[in-house]
Specification:
18 helices, alpha+beta, single chain, four-stranded antiparallel β-sheet, five-stranded mixed β-sheet, 12% strand
């Protein structure tokens, strides 16, 4: 070790002097210095072991003693026994074994005793070192297998640069598995060079460093393929099983708690009933081509038949966001991960910035190949979408009321119908920008400052309409013309310019019901607040009127 026994005991005495009195500790040195690594910047890591049964803090205390950083951790014998018990239980499924747990156990088993040697020996005997070597080697082997299979899938999907990165990760994990089986179980890869030197197998060490240095440059797909093949071959030589070059063993599977909803032609994918992803037309075509359970090459071929240019990266995005999952036939889900990094799992991208957030068609997307995260929680997205539809129905109805009132000279009725139409149109505008719940109708114009700058001209025109009076046919015609102009502008801004004239005919009413039903289905699934109670009847009738004979 880089510190002598006397130096360690002196550092320990000064460290214990800063802790409360009254506890008898057994003490070990753990970490890189205890392993025979370390340098002048390395922490001195002391683990204090108590005989009592209490729960001792997990978080270390950091001290500065004689110019060195000293970490003090504490564990009771009971906590250590539970730790080792969890290790044995987790070893049955290496993919679920916690990295932190493995690291804590490794550091204790390879620690250097400083005080209370008998107790230290007792706790170390709870798991034989040989058994731990097997557990650590299996853990690294599982991770290497996952990374290399993931690299194979990415290469098939045309993501060569990312595939090379995961091949390199799998290379590190494979050689760490091999080293762990030979007693080099220290987890952090930063000391790998010293571990390989101590393993005393120059041919393995040299081949590893040759491959590690030979990672291809970005943009060279052919070099990435050759590199992955070399990494797969080396991993197999090191005893990593289940990583032949067999892309047909990769399958595309359904992801848990992911469902698809369509409004018009827009496809939305809801993840975990919390996030909504909106697919552009090209991405939607690829999504519709998916037949889950098939080998990845077949899925990719079907996606290519859609006519979308380079569908592989879009499929890779589906995987990355957890909308589908990849599996290895007979080997379960592929879940790649890196040591000492963020835990594995679906990526959540930044929310999309396109405005308005949604339209009658569905969420607004940034492009045809987009897989955009809607910047609203799923429930609010559904509620806002339903409000867009219903506000336009109300606006249509109010415009019809205005027309009838003007024909009969009912000026006050016409004024109220105008206000109702303006407020309904504004509700649709606010909803299209994701505002939900909505402001009170009387407050809508004043709250237009919440909306993007481009909507500001509408504020003045809507405000004027709300104050207009009607006392003659001429005034009525002028108000009606201005109302239609404002409603049209609102609909263009909110992506509702194609809204059917709901009350013109049976066909336009049927089109309105179909549009509303698309949104009601997703709203009911997400338990969003329905715009009116009668909407439940539309759901029950599968989007048709409840009374006419079918």
């Amino acid at each position: 070790m880089i510190l002598s026994e006397d130096q360690l005991q002196g550092l320990l005495d000064k460290s214990l002097a800063e802790l409360p009195d009254g506890t008898e500790w057994s003490v070990v040195l753990e970490g890189s210095i205890a392993e025979g690594f370390g340098n002048p910047s390395s922490d001195v890591d002391f683990l204090l072991i108590g005989r009592d049964e209490q729960d001792l803090p997990t978080m270390p205390s950091l001290l500065f003693v004689d110019g060195r950083r000293v970490e003090i951790r504490t564990r009771s014998v009971r906590q250590i026994a539970e730790q080792f018990g969890a290790l044995e239980a987790g070893a049955k499924r290496p993919g679920r074994l916690s990295e932190d747990l493995l690291n804590r156990c490794q550091r204790l088993l390879h620690s250097h005793p400083l005080r209370g040697h008998d107790l230290v020996g007792t706790v170390k005997d709870m798991v034989p070192v040989e058994r731990f070597r097997t557990i650590a080697a299996d853990w690294w082997s599982h991770r290497a297998r996952q990374s290399l299979r993931h690299a194979m899938a990415l290469l098939c999907l045309g993501e060569a640069d990312e595939a090379a990165d995961w091949a390199r990760a799998g290379l590190v994990q494979a050689v760490k598995s091999w080293a762990a089986g030979r007693g080099e179980t220290y987890l952090e890869p930063k000391w790998l060079s010293l571990q390989l030197d101590r393993a005393d197998r120059p041919e393995v060490r040299d081949r590893y460093w040759e491959l590690e240095a030979g990672a291809p440059a970005d943009g060279d797909a052919e070099a990435a393929r050759s590199y992955l093949s070399a990494c797969l071959a080396f991993a197999a030589d090191l005893g990593i099983t289940g990583v032949p070059w067999r892309p047909e063993r990769l399958t595309v599977e359904r992801a848990a708690r992911v469902t698809t909803w369509q409004t018009g032609s827009r496809i939305h994918v809801v993840r975990g009933m919390r996030e909504v992803f909106a697919l552009g037309d090209g991405a939607g075509a690829i999504w519709r081509s998916l037949v889950l359970g098939r080998p990845l090459p077949q899925v990719l071929a079907a996606a290519e038949d859609t006519g979308v240019d380079r569908p592989g990266p879009c499929l890779a995005a589906f995987v990355r966001y957890g909308l589908i999952r990849l599996a290895w036939k007979g080997g379960g889900t592929i879940t790649p991960s890196l040591p000492l990094a963020a835990p594995p799992g679906p990526l959540t991208p930044p929310p999309a910035t396109a405005r308005p957030v949604l339209s009658l068609r569905g969420a607004t997307v940034s492009g045809p190949d987009a897989v955009d995260l809607v910047p609203l929680p799923a429930e609010r997205f559904a509620a806002a979408g339903m409000a867009v539809v219903w506000s336009n129905v109300v606006a249509e109805n109010a415009c019809e009321d205005l027309r009838g009132a003007l024909q009969r000279g009912q000026w006050k009725v016409a004024e109220l119908a105008t206000r109702r139409a303006v407020q309904a149109a504004l509700r649709g505008l606010f909803s299209a920008h994701g505002v939900n719940p909505l402001p009170a109708d009387s407050d809508l114009v004043r709250r237009m400052g919440l909306l993007p700058e481009a909507t500001r001209p509408l504020r003045a025109r809507a405000g004027q309409l709300l104050r207009r009076t009607i006392d003659s046919p001429e005034a009525g015609d002028a108000v009606r013309a201005e109302l239609h102009a404002v409603v049209d502008l609102v609909r263009q801004s909110a992506g509702a310019d194609a809204f059917p004239s709901s009350f013109d005919s049976a066909d336009t009413w049927r089109a309105t019901l179909e549009l509303g039903y698309d949104w009601l289905r997703i709203g009911a699934y997400l338990d969003a607040q329905l715009p009116i109670e009668e909407a439940r009847d539309l759901l029950a009738s599968s989007g048709t009127q409840p009374h006419p004979a079918v």
